[in-house]
Amino acid sequence: MAEALAATHPSTEPVVRLEHVRKSFGDNLVLQEIDLEVASREVLVVIGPSGSGKSTLLRCVNLLEPIDSGRIFFEGTEITAKGVRLPEIRQQIGIVFQSFNLFPHLRAIDNLTLAARRIKKIDRKEAEARAHELLERVGLAEKARSYPHQLSGGQQQRVAIARALMMRPHVMLFDEVTSALDPELVGEVLVVMRDLARDGMTMLVVTHEMQFAREVGDRVIFMDDGLIVEQGKPTDVLDRPKEERTQRFLRRTLQLADSLEELTIEGRQGGVG
Fold this sequence. Notes:
globular
């Protein structure tokens, strides 16, 4: 289905498009009239305070959360219309969460091949060959036979990314994938995401890693209270924000980063003694 859609629609068609999307949880309005496009090969970075609707936005794009109103299009076809086959759509929209969600009783290679074998009916030999290629791509070729508890947090997250890539998605969604990691493990995951961007993967990334947003993002949007408050090139939004809410958020973020750096330095100096 996805291959046919890709062939039917020209490359100028946005990979993802949201029109007037609203989403509530009870009385809590989480997304308010969201209009958004993600172009082919674009890396769109979403920033904003906790509770601003960032994660819900990703989950709606992947159809893990039904929207209340509006429409979502994937490669030109409305995927919020009745009769859409959700499993086929989700194969083309990969998502990686803050928690790794690996099956603890399966080795890394089996975590990668399970869905491909059961959903796509790929035989074991072909699935394992692709899995080995992806594990090598994320720098974990030697960990194919390791179980999740034998891997560091950064390694588990890289396995989770490789697992999402196993289905050959047309777009990848990343939801705060480094926020649960120790600081020294963050870099190894960001390197994998950087490489994906360089290879032309369309990406929608929710993150607090401002340096990643600056270096890798093609566009940054700032969300607050379920609204897209500001968007533009990374240098414009991060260095010259126009909206007061964006300015306030970035000031707090920089102050927090400075405080964490000071605590890290103090901890290391205390450990030396």
